[in-house]
Amino acid sequence: MTDDTIALRALLEKGSDATFLREMIGFAAQRLMELESEALCGAGRGERSADRRNQRNGYRDRDWETRAGTVELRIPKLRRGSYFPAFLEPRRLAEKALTAVVQEAYVQGISTRSVDDLVRAMGMEGISKSQVSRLCGEIDERVQTFLSRPIEGEWPYVWLDATYVKARRDHHIVSVAVIVAVGVNTDGRREVLGMTVGHSEAEPFWVEFLRSLARRGLRGAKLVISDAHEGLKAAIVKVLGATWQRCRVHFMRNALAYAGKTQRRIVSAWVGTAFAQDDAAAARKQWREVADQARPRVPKLAALMDDAETDVLAYMGFPAQHRAKLHSTNPLERLNGEIKRRSEVVGIFPNEAAVTRLIGALLLEQNDEWAVQRARYMSLETIAPLSDDPFFSLPTVAA
Prior knowledge:
By secondary structure, the chain is an alpha/beta fold. It is built from 16 helices and 8 strands. The strands form 2 sheets. Strands 3, 4, 5, 6, 7 and 8 form a 6-stranded mixed sheet that branches. The longest helix is centred in the N-terminal third of the chain and has 25 residues, at 17-41.
């Protein structure tokens, strides 16, 4: 209590009213976070207690934008589970990024009618270029720090997917590919590993992206899940040396294209019998039987199954508890849906930097949400044996 009183007296001696208010907000927020983390641990910091349920594990810095200005917070971290203060707004950065992109389009005079209406509805008539530059610079710095951060530990599973948005380049409107990589580490936690924006999905583009992840520390990849892009397949082998899993959902769309409208349900159930098997050997055997039965009637479908067998069934060689999340890029679908929803508000991005700004901010906030979730994406007991580190690969000792 004495320390708090001294700290409060020091705040009262500070300069302007705005500075005092900002410092007062920071002081109250920090004290609230300390009290909440102590409640979660069951004891104070450094206190020895039989009631202790958890331990502190340092802090992570975060800026909190308030009407009094930017407040620098130090959010406590816990050894088990996670803590995130309820008074922070997890969606704040993405909204600012969207505002910045719309403002930039408006200032440059290239917005569509829907964007112009949105700008006016947000009360941004007469926004100056200096205001836009200041807001964009603040967001760009945080996004670039996030996208270039070191990747620590081992990542047995990596999902890769691309989505397309419209942007202006050299006074022309073009479609640009937005590539997103998500991984799960040997602690069972999911993170956004990186993103990039490119002209196309050619092999050199994929190779450079995967090499950038490797330079930042990506290692230990056992399975990479994506759609059947030839350039990506070659890049995975060249850079990561991991097994490739062809997205089952994308494959089924291709397979059903060879079936008539009346036969699609039957073909889907037919091929699905292979996915229902308990192990890799049984799945491959059933796969070949289905392909052989289809050969006389639908030879193109049989040929497709012959070519895709190894890639579509690759996930069957991994723990059964993980297979529902490994057979396709579906874990990225919700993320892609949010990207599409936000990008449709903009319509046409003024440049590729604006694409990185908005989508990078969305990915940063999604990563923060995953970081504070109590439940792991995959259990530690099932994913730890995939580690190349002998410490994590030790077999469980029977009680």
